[in-house]
Amino acid sequence: MQVKITDGTSYIESLRNRGLKIFLFGNEIDEPVDHPVIRPSINAIAKTYDLAIEKPELASVISPFTGERVSRFLHVCTSTQDLVLQNKMQRKLGQLTGTCFQRCVGMDAFNALYSVTFEMDEKLGTSYHQKLKIFLTQMHQYNLVLGGAMTDVKGDRSLFPHQQPDPDMYLHITKRSEKGVFLSGAKAHQTGCINSHYLMVMPTTRLSEKDKNYAVVGSIPVTSKGVTYIYGRQSCDTRSMEDGNIDVGNATYGGQEAMILFDNVFIPNENIYMDGEYEFAAMLVERFTTFHRRSYVCKSGVGDVLIGAAAAVSEMNGVPKASHIKDKLVQMSHLNETVYATGIASSYQGYQTKAGNYQCDDMLANVCKHHVTKMPYEIAQIAQDLAGGFVSTLPSEQDLNHPEIGKLLKKYLRGNADFTTEERIRILRLIENMTMGRNAVGYLTESIHGAGSPQAQRIQIGRMMQLEYKKRLAKVLAGIEVDDSEVLVNELGDYFERVFKTS
Ligand code: SF4
Ligand code: FE
Q1: Ligand of minimum distance to the alpha carbon of 102
Q2: 291 lines ligand 1 (CB under 6 A)
Q3: Domain spans of the chain, in order of start
């Protein structure tokens, strides 16, 4: 029986004995909770629950549905302050875990769906919004984890879903009954899916009329019949299966991505929030990606850890005062704060939707995520620079503990005498973990591709950059066009409306 989750421990217990079908290294996993490769990703989500106890004002809210305290990851934002607090919570969790804590996709999904279902109902007379609220109430009652499942495997990228030679390249409806629909297909790179209780499945792209069967949104328990998970390998993942806890770099926390296969998975009518309304797919994708691209301020929290590691290793190497080292730490901080600045600005510039909830600013969200596709790489490059070559050539923990060579290694790997050799090695291993190992998956590669690859943000920025308006500004000042200031002052377009909003 489901009981309300109150902290990290009860969250971890809620994942036991669920009988999920999970494959990893060619084997079916009995109990993911106890698997050494999977457990760090579970610990990262558990931390979101513990933070809600340690800092309730930051990581929890009073549910408008139940009147009880629940995770902020389950909250529909009803003010810009709510949007901002999501970002502050994300930065803090990045700092505390040094990795991806996996809960933002679900949070961003229902926040986007909240307004999209409202506008669908208004236009079409459907009742999706009310159904979504009932589902959210159930999530709040038990304080559960919702994962979002958007990215299809996509097959031939030049073809619409209905044009694919294999229809399963995008998740789609295969059959119907009076009680609901059945879905087949596959979702790739699904963050935290195995650590969730429910998944929100959504289309990944704008759709045409012929793609109606692909225009489906619904919530399913992760335990649904017909669902198979295939765990994604991460760089150096088997280190967490070795003895010891130094070489893993971050022994406690890690991220998780898996592929999800759907074989005629049933969704009952009450959990369906889009069924054939293909014309709303683009609106959903855009609102979701706006939320999610701004959620990438999480990387500024992870960046804080890496900057700290770079400063610490400089001390351990004996060069904390060298001016070029300080300058590089300043450079790392400048990059890191630039990521944070654009994300939090997107939240501060949020606006109310017709449904009453708040949506963050799309231009700044895309700029934030686009920074994230590059700046963590620059930060990581400087961290490796400051670490020195040992970041990639250190002997193993077993050699360090070896009766014959261990002592010699401890002698020769010593830096600044204020620190032990093990301390220096631990920091070097953390930098390795974040720039080449397990958590580089989250800090670097996911920074490129998560919430859409770089070109997806450039397309959105291009759509919103209002060149005609800007050309007129220039032409008026250059004396080419006559100033019709009424128009230049008042016809601003969505983005500048928000920039110049005075209340
Ligand atoms: Fe959240 Fe960041 Fe992980 Fe995405 S990458 S789920 S935004 S922590
Ligand atoms: Fe992600």
Answers
A1: 1
A2: no
A3: 8-292, 293-462, 466-500
